[in-house]
Amino acid sequence: MKSTILKPLCLSLAMVSSSAVLAVDSEPTAPRNVILIVGDGMDDHQITIARNYLAGSRGKINLDEMALRSSVQVLTVDDKDPSRPLYVADSANSATSMATGEITSRGRIGTSAKYDQDLVSIVDLAKQAGLKAGIVTTANITDATPSSFVAKISQRECENPEMMVDALIYKRKPVDCSQDVKAKGGPGSISEQLAASNVDVLLGGGMQHFSKQAEGSSKTVLEQAKESGFYIADNASDMKSAPADKKLLGLFAEGNLPERMAYEGEREAEQPDPSMLNYLHKYLGSVEMPDTVKCESNAAFGDTPELREMTSVALNRLSEKNDKGFFLMVESASIDKASHQRRACGQIGELQQLTEALDVALEFAEKHENTLVLVTADHGQAAQLMPDTSLFKAFDLPAYSPGYVARVETPEGVIMAVNYATNGLFAEEHTGVNVPLFANKEGVGKVPTMLTQPEIFNVMVSYLNLK
Amino acid sequence: MKSTILKPLCLSLAMVSSSAVLAVDSEPTAPRNVILIVGDGMDDHQITIARNYLAGSRGKINLDEMALRSSVQVLTVDDKDPSRPLYVADSANSATSMATGEITSRGRIGTSAKYDQDLVSIVDLAKQAGLKAGIVTTANITDATPSSFVAKISQRECENPEMMVDALIYKRKPVDCSQDVKAKGGPGSISEQLAASNVDVLLGGGMQHFSKQAEGSSKTVLEQAKESGFYIADNASDMKSAPADKKLLGLFAEGNLPERMAYEGEREAEQPDPSMLNYLHKYLGSVEMPDTVKCESNAAFGDTPELREMTSVALNRLSEKNDKGFFLMVESASIDKASHQRRACGQIGELQQLTEALDVALEFAEKHENTLVLVTADHGQAAQLMPDTSLFKAFDLPAYSPGYVARVETPEGVIMAVNYATNGLFAEEHTGVNVPLFANKEGVGKVPTMLTQPEIFNVMVSYLNLK
C-alpha cells in the first residue's frame, strides 16, 4: 500500500521537475517558454457563468482541470500618495504588475505611481536575453493589458499620436501625456512605441491607432512599423503566411475585435420594471422581470481571426528556430468589455475563446517541454450570478435587482440570471476580489496557493532565468 | 540541483502520506479525524473584504497560507423536477451536499429533492462506525447548515415543534412539515431530532427552539435532550466544565449568537442619494454618497463564547480517550447573515472568528497526526468589493451603486466600499459563484483542484474509511 500510494506521486513530481533540473545541469535541452493567458475581468463569477452555459452546471471546462490552482491579490496604489493602497484596480495597473513586478496606480502603462518612472518589463528582459516575445489580444493592441508589457507611458488613453496632448475621451475625460511626446525626448504614444519595438509578434485590433500620422513625421505609425521591420497583416490569411524573417504586426479591426457571441435580436440586459405601487414602498406592488435572452453567434464577428488562431500563429513563430525560449502574453480582453456593458453572452463567448487558446497552449506545452502555462485575470468584474427565482419568493414580495439583469437561457434549459448593479452609467465598475490563477503541471511547486499580482512577474522571470 | 529540488517534495509528500499508509498497514496508529470548517456565504469577495480590513490589502490571513487551494462547484436542483439544475443554492441544500454527498433542492435538510427520502450523513456513518461527532456553529444549532449534518426534514424552517404544521415565517412564508410529525411516525422537528441524536457535542445558539413543548409530551425539548444523555450548558464556563461522560448540548443564545463586530453608532449600509436632476437622466445632476463607517466591537456580544472557544472545547471532548477518530463540523454562520443584511463589519468580524477557529484546528492537527482540516463555503453572497472612487470619475458623471453601500474605514486608512445590490428587500440574495476550498497538508493529493460540493463528502468519508 505504501509504495503504491507514494511512488506515483513522487514519479509525477519527478517528471515535472526533471526537465527543469536538466536545464540547469546540462546543455542543450529544450528552451524555456512562458505562456501567460489573461482573461480580462475573469473572476470566479465570470468563470462560473461561462461554465454553466458552455458545459452545464455539473460540467467542467479546461480551466477546472489544470494541475494547479492559486489565487492572486490584486494590488493598486494611489497616484498622488503611493503609500496608500486602493482596493480596486484597472487593467493598466494590474497588467503593469504582471509585466514588471511593481505596484502602480490606475491608468498607468509600465510606469511608476506618482514618479512616472519607466519600469522594466518581462518583455524587455526577455528580448535583452535573446528570447523571443509576443503579445496577442482581442482588444486594440494598444489597449491597457497588451501595451503594459511593452510600452511606458503615464496614461493608458494615449494610444496614438493624436491622443497625447489636450485630448478628450468621449468629449469629457481629459487626457494629457505631454511629458511623453517625442519632441520632449519622450517615447511617443503607445502605437508609436509598439511600432518601434522589437517584439516579435503583435496580434490584435486597433488599426485606428496606427493609421494616424506619427509625431514629427510625414509617415503614419503603420509605415513606421514597416520601416522598423514589421510585416503587417490585416486578415487571417496574411497572418498565417507572413514571412518568417520579419516581425509580425497583425491588426484585424479598427478597434477591439468583435465579440464572438451576442444576445439574440440585439437585446440588452434590462432593468426590472416595478409597478407604481412599488415606488411607494418596496414591499408593495409587483415587478415585471426582463424577458429571457438567448445567445447567438455575433454576425459582426465574420472572418475575424479567433483567439486560438492568433495564439497558434504566435506559438509557431516564437518557437521556430529558437533555442533561447520565449514569452507570450495572450489576452481575452472582452470578458471585461462585455461585462462592463452588461453583455452576458459576449462574456461567455470571450471566455470560451480563452479556453480554446488555452487548449492550443496546453497542446504546445505537451509537445514542448519546459513550457510554463499560466492563466489568470487582471481584476474582478461587476457581473454576478444571481438567483433567477429569488430566495425570498415564498414571502410573496417584489424581489428584484436595482440594477440591470440578463436572464440567459442556457443550453441545459435553465434561466441563468446575471446581475449588473455597480452603477447606472455606460459601464459597470471593476471589483476588488482576489482572482484565480491556474498553471499546467510545469507550475506545480513553483507557484504558491496564494500570491500577489506582482509576484506573477517573479515566477515568470525566475522560470525563464531572466534575473 | 536535482536532488535539492526533488527530495524535499517527495519527502513532504511522504510525510503527508505515511501515516495514511500506516493506518492501513498496521494498528495501532493515531485515529483519523476530519475537521470541516464552513464559512457560510464565504466566497472570495467576502475573504478579500475581510483580509483588507484584518490584515491590509498586502497582508495574509491564515486561509491564504493553507497547503492546498481548490474550488467547489455548488450544485442545486429543482424540487419539482430534480433533473433540472438551479444555479444558486441556499445553505440547506448546500450543507446537505457536504453532509450526504447528494444534490438536493433549496430548503431541504438531509432529504432528497421531490421524493423526500432521508439521506445518510457523514455523522450517521461516523457514529455507526464508532467514531465521535460534533457540530459547532454561531447560528441556531437548528439552522440549515448545522442541522443538515444530523437531521432529516423537508423544510429548514421546521426548527421546533411549533413550526411543523400551519406555521408562518414573518407572518408571510408558509411552512409545512406535517409529514414529518411524530404522530405520523416522522422524526419530529429539528430540535427534537437533535435532542434525540447521539452526536457527542452540539454547540451554538437556539435555546428558543429547545424551550418549546415536545410533540406528544408534557416535556420541553430541552428536558428530552437531558433524558437522552445531554449535559446542557448555557454559558462558556458550564461548557468548559461539562462532565466528560455526557453528550454536550451548549445553547448560548435564544437565537443566533451575536456578531462580534458592528458598525460604530448603529449605522447601516445606505443608499447613495442622487440630486433631483439625476432622476431626470442618469447623466445629469450629482450624487451624495453615504458617510463612511467605522467598525467597533459589538456590545451585544458580551460574554458569548467565541467560535474558537467552542471549537477548542469540541476538539478536547471529541479526541479524549478516543481511539476511533471523529468528525467535527464548525460553522461561522453570520458571514452570511451579516451579508444578507448589509453589515460589512459583521461579516468581517465573523470571518475573523472563522480564522481563529482555523488556528485552533490547525494547532490540533499539528499535535494529532491524521487530522484532515478542510475549510470551505456553502455558497456565494451578494456583497461585492467595489471601487470607492469610480473608475469613471474623470468623466465627471454621477456614478453610484443602485443598491446599498457600506463605505468602511479600514485600519490602513483607506475607504473600502462594499456593494449590496441584488434586491431591495430585507435581505440580499445568495450568488451562484464557485466557492473556495482550502486544506491543510493532510489534504494534499486527496483533493483535486476543483470538485463538486457533494464530492467533499466523498473526500471526508474516504479519509475516515467510512465507506
TrEMBL record, chains A, B:
Binds 1 Mg(2+) ion. Binds 2 Zn(2+) ions. It comes from the Bacteria. Belongs to the alkaline phosphatase family. The active site is at S91 (phosphoserine intermediate). Mg(2+) binds at D40, D143, T145, E331. Gene3D superfamilies: Alkaline Phosphatase, subunit A. Zn(2+) binds at D40, D336, H340, D378, H379. SUPFAM superfamilies: Alkaline phosphatase-like. Keywords: Disulfide bond, Magnesium, Metal-binding, Phosphoprotein, Signal, Zinc. This is Alkaline phosphatase. Residues 1-23 form the signal peptide. Pfam families: Alk_phosphatase.
